[in-house]
Every structure is written in structure tokens, then in C-alpha cells.
Write a structure and sequence with these properties.
This protein has 13 helices and 16 strands. It has helices at residues 38-46, 63-67, 76-79, 107-113, 147-159, 191-196, 218-230, 246-250, 252-262, 282-293, 344-361, 375-382, 386-396, and strands spanning 2-7, 13-19, 29-33, 50-52, 86-93, 98-101, 121-132, 136-144, 166-173, 187-188, 203-213, 240-245, 273-278, 302-308, 325-331, 366-368. The longest helix has 18 residues, at 344-361. The structure holds flavin-adenine dinucleotide and 2-acetamido-2-deoxy-beta-D-glucopyranose (3 copies). Residues 159, 308, 310, 324-325 line the site of one 2-acetamido-2-deoxy-beta-D-glucopyranose.
Length: 418
């Protein structure tokens, strides 16, 4: 066992213990404090040539915070969300008990706390599964103008045995003729052709993927990537790629954060909407939302990528659609101005229209990071899982003292049961 220290978000020196070796069949793990930022967990594990397997797009978030939701990014299609990559938790329950739990020990609390929105206890330590850390990453973007080809290629890639290590995608709507500079910092493979490429007011879909590699074996990676790309139907002149270190890739959103902060555009309201949409209705959803409701994507990225339900453990508290393949669709809007197109009101009214459409058209959508404000809404959100969620609340936090801000369990409505 190696012990190393990590500076956590509170700038306190905390202990982070590494176990296992990562090799020869001994699964490696790290014991991280619940309040540690993922970026610091990464820095510490990289010193040992190891890294967690599943991520969020942004790493300056806490371990306990993302595990209380799900933790989803482009690795989830293969590794599952972050909640599928935890071996053990230490939790201080609402009763004040300090409980160590895992799939074998106090499993009801373990699964309840994963995606549990902080309702049953405070996660004070998490044992996170590790793998040997990749050294370099080939980071690729290609564009599609046809939604069906885009999603068919995404689905083929997440289902394939041999595939990329990270698969995401985003939607670019350019009906008003202004477009985010989507390819900043990317090297086009064919700069001449690429400079002629423009979207002409169409909706475009960007497929984003990575392949990890060791620089000593770059030629093998080139070959594998070539084969994978040859099966895809993107617009040929739009292939962009760049090679970066694993750390640079994982911490990519922080680089954007620094640029936005310098422009005063980070500390602004972010009326985000994150939806999980079943595969069977994603085309109807896209036609309505990208074809009619939204006029542009200038207020922030719109993520769209599929995952496989089999990588999500249904004993956790995470709520997902009832279908084998579902899409994560994230409308990550910024609202930098007080009125007009860049205002909170504008973004919220578009979000409302999208949610309204989903409800009326029976899309089978579930919200991720749901902002519900009444117990009735939460009951509808949890559906058949509500009974279990409520039972766990009575069991682990009978006085409903934890995370009241989620507005799931009002303090007064709970009887003093024990
Ligand atoms: C810029 C940005 C990018 C993001 N990108 C992604 C992404 O790519 N994928 C993704 O899945 N999510 C993403 N998220 C959402 C993120 O997973 C949640 O916001 C999560 O709550 C963040 O953790 P935090 O440390 O900021 O939590 P906080 O905001 O501090 O807490 C939020 C809630 O989580 C619960 N909680 C927090 N810590 C604990 C704990 N130790 N024990 C129990 N409950 C706790 C509580 O209910 C609390 O009210 C992103 C968020 C931001 C701000
Ligand atoms: C989803 O995962 C399961 C289990 O690995 C697999 O059998 C199934 O084929 C996958 N579905 C798709 C559409 O890839
Ligand atoms: C967006 O559309 C306008 C015309 O509608 C076009 O001039 C512009 O080049 C497009 N932007 C990109 C990057 O395709
Ligand atoms: C979880 O999935 C298993 C197998 O698919 C199923 O038998 C079980 O009923 C599910 N449990 C819940 C709580 O949905």
C-alpha cells in the first residue's frame, strides 16, 4: 500500500491511499476523500501510472458530488458512469452513523447513495477503480449534416468490440449564420479543403472521439484509427485531429474555463438542461428540437451521445430511461446578458419548450441533474423506484436533515419514525 497526500478543494492536506497494483490481476483502486476534486485524484494517481476509468467532462468537481448524481462522459459507453466504478464508500448517514458500505457490506446504503442526491448520507470516502493510465490521446472530430448517419455511426461505435476509448458528439445549429468556432485548437487533416468547408445555415453534428496510445506505438494507433474512421460516413473534408497528453485531454474543459474567466464569461448563470432520451424517440426529438424549437446553438454546446444501459447498475438511485440504448442530450447554455437572446429568461423558456414537447409527445425522457422543486415531480421522476428511494430516506435520514435543497423531502412532512 502506497500512501500519498492530495491537496483537496479546501486546501487541506488529506490522505489518499492507493491499493492494488493495476497489474497481474490485482485490481487497483484509490481511496479518495469525498471532498477531493477529481483533478487532484487524477494528479495523484498519475504519479503511480494509474488513473480512474470513468469521468465527467469537467474535473474540478468533487468525488462525492458526482457520485451523488452519476458521473457521465464519453467513457461511459464502455466503462459505465462513475457510479459503476466504485468499490466501496464511507458514509455518514443522517442518523450520524459512520458506515462502510460496498456491494457485499451494507449494500442497500451503498447502492442508495450512488446517484442518491445526498439524501441518505454524506460520502466521506470513495474507493475508486483504477486502470493503467494512457500516455497520449489522439483526439478526433468529424462533422455530419445528416442526423441519421451521425447517430447510426455513434451507435455502431459504442457497440463495436474494437472501438474508440471516448465517444461523444455535439449539435451545431447555424441558422442565424453565426457559429461557435468549433474547431479551435484542432489541426485539420486537409487544411485546404477544410478552409472551404462551411455549413450555410444547416444543422451540423460533430462526432468527437479519442484513441489512447503510447508514443512508442503510434503507428499501431494510426492503423486502428484509420480502420475505424473508414467505416464512418462523415463529410470527408471535416476530419480534424490533434495529439495531446491524457491529462490535457481529461482537463480540457478547464482550459476553456480559463479563457472564459479571462473574458468574464464563466461566472454567469448556466440554465442547463440535461436529458436522457431513449433511442426509439431520439429522431422525433431531434426533428422537433433542432429543427424547430432552437434557432441556434450560440449560447453553449449541445452534447448528444448514446450509452448502453447494461453498464448502469439498476440497484443504484440513478434514474434512466427504460431502454437498452439511450442518449445523453445536454443543453449547456450560458446566460451572459440581462435581456434578449443571451438572458436566463430566454434560455429557460427554450428549456421549458423542450421539456414540454417531451412530456406531450411521450418521448420517455428522464432528466439528469433534475431541477425539480416539488415531491410530486420527484415521484414522477423516480416512477417505480420512488418506493425504494423513500424507504431508504426513512431508514438512513429519518429526520430529513440532509440536502433539503433538492426539495425531495420537506422536513415537516416526515413523521419522527424512530
Ligand atoms: C462545469 C460543470 C461541468 C459538469 N460536467 C458534468 C459532466 O460532464 N458529467 C456529469 O455527470 N456531470 C457534470 N456536471 C454535474 C456534476 O456532476 C454535479 O453538479 C455534481 O453535483 C458536482 O459535484 P460538486 O462537487 O460541484 O457538488 P455540489 O454542487 O457541491 O453538490 C451538489 C449536490 O450533490 C450532493 N453532494 C455533494 N457532495 C456530496 C457528498 N460528499 N456526499 C453526498 N452528497 C453530496 C448534495 O446533494 C449537493 O446538494 C458538471 C457540473 C459543472 C458545474
Ligand atoms: C448493450 O450491452 C449488452 C451487454 O454488453 C450487449 O449484449 C448489447 O448488444 C449492447 N447493445 C447494443 C445495441 O450495443
Ligand atoms: C454559418 O452560416 C453562414 C450562412 O448562413 C455561413 O456564411 C457561415 O460560413 C456558416 N458558418 C460555418 C462555420 O459553417
Ligand atoms: C434490475 O435488472 C434486473 C435484471 O435485468 C431485473 O431482474 C430487476 O428486476 C431490476 N431491478 C430493478 C430495481 O429495477
Amino acid at each position: 500500500m502506497v500512501r500519498v497526500s492530495v491537496v483537496c478543494c479546501l486546501k487541506l492536506l488529506l490522505l489518499l491511499a492507493l491499493g492494488g497494483s493495476g497489474g497481474a490481476g490485482v485490481p487497483a483502486y484509490v481511496d479518495a476523500p469525498g471532498g477531493a476534486l477529481w483533478i487532484n485524484v487524477l494528479h495523484e494517481t498519475l504519479k503511480h501510472g494509474l488513473a480512474p476509468k470513468s469521468w465527467t467532462d469537467y474535473l474540478h468537481l468533487t468525488v462525492g458530488g458526482t457520485l451523488s448524481n452519476a458521473g457521465v462522459s464519453g467513457q461511459a459507453f464502455r466503462q459505465g458512469p462513475q457510479v459503476s466504478n466504485v468499490n466501496q464508500l464511507e458514509i455518514v448517514t443522517g442518523r450520524g452513523d459512520v458506515v462502510t458500505c460496498s456491494p457485499e457490506e451494507n449494500s442497500d446504503l451503498f447502492y442508495g447513495a450512488l446517484g442518491g442526491l445526498g439524501q441518505f448520507g454524506i460520502i466521506t470516502r470513495a474507493r475508486i477503480a483504477l486502470e493503467p493510465a494512457p500516455k497520449m490521446v489522439r483526439w478526433i472530430r468529424v462533422l455530419y449534416s445528416d442526423f441519421a448517419s451521425f447517430t447510426e455511426d455513434q451507435e455502431a461505435l459504442i457497440s463495436a468490440e474494437e472501438t474508440f476509448d471516448y465517444i461523444e458528439g455535439f449539435v451545431i445549429i447555424n441558422r442565424t449564420g453565426i457559429l461557435n468556432n468549433w474547431r479551435t485548437s484542432f489541426k485539420p487533416q486537409d487544411p485546404v479543403q477544410a478552409s472551404h468547408f462551411q455549413s450555410d445555415g444547416k444543422v451540423l453534428y460533430c462526432l468527437e472521439m479519442t484513441k489512447n496510445f503510447d508514443p512508442d506505438e503510434a503507428d499501431i494507433m494510426e492503423q486502428e484509427v484509420g480502420v475505424l474512421l473508414s467505416r464512418l460516413r462523415y463529410i470527408q473534408s471535416t476530419l480534424f485531429h490533434t495529439d495531446v497528453t491524457y491529462l490535457e485531454f481529461l482537463d480540457r474543459v478547464h482550459s476553456s474555463e480559463l479563457k472564459l474567466r479571462a473574458q468574464g464569461l464563466w461566472e454567469v448563470p448556466h440554465p442547463w438542461l440535461n436529458l436522457l432520451i431513449p433511442r426509439s424517440t431520439i429522431h422525433r426529438f431531434a426533428r422537433e428540437v433542432f429543427g424547430k424549437i432552437l434557432k441556434d446553438s450560440n449560447n453553449g454546446p449541445i452534447l448528444l451521445y448514446p450509452v448502453n444501459r447494461s453498464k448502469w447498475d439498476n440497484r443504484t438511485s440513478v434514474v434512466i430511461p427504460e431502454e437498452e440504448i439511450f442518449y445523453l442530450v445536454g443543453f449547456l447554455s450560458s446566460a451572459p446578458s440581462a435581456s434578449g437572446h443571451g438572458s436566463v429568461e430566454h434560455a429557460v423558456s427554450l428549456n421549458d419548450k423542450i421539456v414540454d414537447f417531451c412530456d406531450k409527445a411521450g418521448v420517455g425522457m428522464k432528466q439528469y441533474l433534475a431541477p425539480y422543486t416539488t415531491q410530486q415531480q420527484w415521484k414522477a421522476h423516480f416512477g417505480a423506484r420512488w418506493e425504494t428511494f423513500e424507504r431508504r430516506k426513512h431508514m438512513y435520514d429519518p429526520l430529513a436533515i440532509l440536502a433539503p435543497g433538492q426539495r425531495i423531502f420537506p422536513k415537516a412532512s416526515l413523521p419522527m419514525s424512530s
